[in-house]
Amino acid sequence: MTTATTLCILALCVWFAISALAQLNRGAVKKLKDHDAFSLIPNWSFFAPRPGTSDYHLLFRDTDGAGVGGEWQEIPLAQRRTLLGAVWNPQKRKTKTLSDVVRGLVLLSQDRSLREYSLTLPYLIILNYVSALSRPERAGWTQFMILKSEGFYSTQEPQFIFLSKQHRCGDEN
């Protein structure tokens, strides 16, 4: 190995170490960052400014023509993480969009001045998504619900956040 190659590898290793330490906001690295004119020391604030501490769950159920409600079924808002998923994840945009829309409806539902949610964009997007899901047999009505859970290993039951109206599915005769 040549001297130039060795110096290049050494410089990249030092840069990597400083970059890793910068994520911990250590005093010495902060002083280095003050003199970093070319922004070579990154700062990835993955959990800033306020980290998310809860998860939302989107569920739906269908009701048949006789008014008998089916079981609640969960629509996953996140997928199991895999190593391949870091490189190739074609479903990421769909699940991220759905997750963002659910969070948008949760925020709207906290607005006490808003009386009608069924005409808001997040509500209509979720309703459209739920209505378009394939089902073994056609339902007469569909409804969705949002629950909130605290943390991955929570011992508490999920908390109720939102329940939609029942909506007619399919063609009306």
Commentary on this structure:
- The protein is of the alpha+beta class and 173 residues long.
- It is 34% helix and 17% strand.
- It has four helices and five strands; from the N terminus they run H-H-E-E-H-H-E-E-E.
- The protein has helices spanning 3-22, 27-34, 92-109, 121-132; strands at residues 54-63, 73-75, 141-150, 159-163, 167-168.
- Strands 1, 2, 3, 4 and 5 form a five-stranded antiparallel beta sheet that branches.
- A hairpin with an 8-residue loop joins strand 3 (141-150) and strand 4.
- The longest helix is centred in the first third of the chain and has 20 residues, at 3-22.
- The protein starts with a helix and ends in a 5-residue tail after the last strand.
- The mean pLDDT is 83.
On the 0 to 100 scale, the average pLDDT is 83
Instruction: Classify the secondary structure makeup into a structural class.
Output: alpha+beta
Q: Choose one word for the global shape.
A: elongated
How far apart the termini lie comes to 79 Å
Low-confidence stretches: none
Number of H- or I-type helical stretches: 4
* H-E string: HHEEHHEEE
Helix content: 25-40%
Strand % is 15-25%
Radius of gyration: 24 Å
Largest sheet: 5 strands, antiparallel
The number of distinct β-strands equals 5
